[in-house]
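Chain A, query sequence.
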Amino acid sequence: INFVMEFGNYGYRDELTGAGWRAARTGMHAQVPVRHWHQNDPGVMPNLLQTGAGSPTGITIYEGHLLPKVFHDQVIHCDAGPNVVRAYPATVDGAGYKARVVNLVKGARDNWFRPADVCVAPDGSVFVSDWYDPGVGGHNQRDLDRGRLFRIAPVGHKYRPPKIDVSTVAGAISALKNPAFSVRYLAFTALQAGGVEARTALRLLAADRQANPRHRARAVWVLGKSGSASQAADVAERAMADGDADLRIVGLRLARQIEYDIITAVSRLADDPSSRVRRECLVALRTTKSPEVPALWARLASGYDGVDRWYLEALGIAAEPWWDACLAAWAKLKPDAFDSAAGRRIIWRSRATGTAARLAEIISDTKTPLADLPGYLRALDYQPTHFRQAAALALVTGEHGEDTERSGLVIREALKRVGALDLRTNSEARLAINRVVERQKGTSGFVSLVGRFGLADRYPELARMAQRQPDTQLGIDSVRVLLAKGQRDLLGRGLAVGKEVETTALARALANASDARAAAVLAPLINDSKRPLPVRREAVRGVIRGSRGGANTVLARVRKKTLPMELRQAAGAALVTHPDAGVRKQAIALFPSPPSKDNKPLPTIAQLAGRKGNAGRGQKLFSTTATCAKCHKVNGQGKEVGPDLSGVGRKLGRSALYESVLFPSAGISHNYESYVAVLADGTLVTGLLISRTPESVTIRNPEAIDRKIAVGDIEELKKQTISLMPADLQKLMTAADLVDVVEYLTTLRATIPAAKKSK
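Chain A, predicted structure.
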């Protein structure tokens, strides 16, 4: 839930690349909700509140008095996923706000309750429309005929709309205070046309310090939108001088809309005691090109406490076209500005030509806490390329104290940002890189550095890493680097020399790479009867997974019965799960699916939903026989390929859970659609689209292995209509097993905890 500050970035995607929240980045928060909204990135507005996963729909503001006081003047919001209509009572938090959740209606006994929209009636009661359905998400409605409408009011309160009469000024003023938007609109238009009598009544309401501040603000707005320009300016000035900070904000917003001089308005309020008013001043400065902006910005920056993220982002909004001039004006106003905590935070947020160098100074300062370094390193990414690379090179070759963890982090991250480096001529950089690489052995950082700088003497270690971890991202990335560097001879020796378990592991890593280059390395092994059988099986799998052409070649050999019998099962397993639909269709005809586990048909969904299972046994099956944990996380455990199921029991009823398991492609959750990338070399890569930028695409396969692909290498990227989730999981289980698994799923009712606010 966000407070919308004009010109703000709310962090749905990476500002720099457009990548989604799953894409790795420096300083990425450990908590998924914070990570999801890029809350650790400079230039991103803080969340007002995090409510966890859901399917948000209608929203309104409740200004009636029928409901309990906690709901008065608060946002009311429908979330169809967790079957709830709730309010977010907000309180002031620095220059912004904080909020909590208070439920108004909860479908605790009816999880077909799917609130779609909410509005306030003229009598102060609340109406909620309910689309009424067992499922939500994936556009997979199952009940197309029925819906419900709820009215929420105190017990016994009958619906009697008040008489609305906007033909008189008194009636229109009364209607202006009504909680229904439609009634207020009628009042607004009537009062605008009401002449002197209406303006007199509105001025009285606007000046009444005892009146509801919202009613006063509304009166100010109507006055400012009617009458002459000088009258509107007078209204804005009176509001900006009011004792209520919210009225001063309304006055400034009105001033902007009536083309009042922004510099004059901001000058009046730049030293306002309310940081929220000063926040609005900063937003207003974004709308003017006056050369007086930097000096006013510096005055407003002096009011920053070094903690308030709302205020910091407002400073960023105002300075966006003026960063160099703004920082210079601030330094002139406060010569020691950059030595303070507030100064460091402003540097973190800034985008000036000198920011990168200042960030490097902060990062190199051993007094900067280790925990703060990722944030400052991330801020380097937002600086112009030339300045970023110069600062990064200074960090690579600089001194960072005796703390090896600290220096390793700084140099490793700086190396990601230095651009091209000629290690033959830059001895300082070469020594620094070698120190970092040595400390990074066995990690993804090692793989990245070896690949980036072409450290040929480290290639054998990559081959050993692939052998040790052939099924992990680390092992697969290792062979991908070797393939990219043309190390076919090294890989060939690794497949020929060593223990069987080692050569098989390397063959498996190559097969898992799903790469046409890997297939070319593996293809000669298929018919080599001198090779161990496990190696040849992995070779078949690698050729099939490597490209559509490879898969078709193996299919042809199966038909002609020229593929050795001992390799048929390995070929069949790879072919029937191939990402290409045409390959799968041919494979299924050649390798018919086995019957269900106990060779018995499943009962109907209605019959299954009526059964009671053993949740404890279902939990064990979830992670073992049913293979659910291979793709889904529950309470932090499992792999992140499909949606997190920690709260699925709150979202779906039994019938919907059975349908989701048995017919996974019927309703695919948003952001979990499957994609197939066809590469120029014939490689097919299928899986979840993790990130898509103008330069690259990252796809996560069903084994939770990510592959980053340059856009120039992709011939076609196509969204699939089928889910990554297998449609035949029931073949792994008996009906009783399935009932137990679903019973366990019904117990998963966790909510994602609200993340702690980061400074």
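The chain has a mean pLDDT of 90. Residues 533-546 form the longest helix (14 residues).
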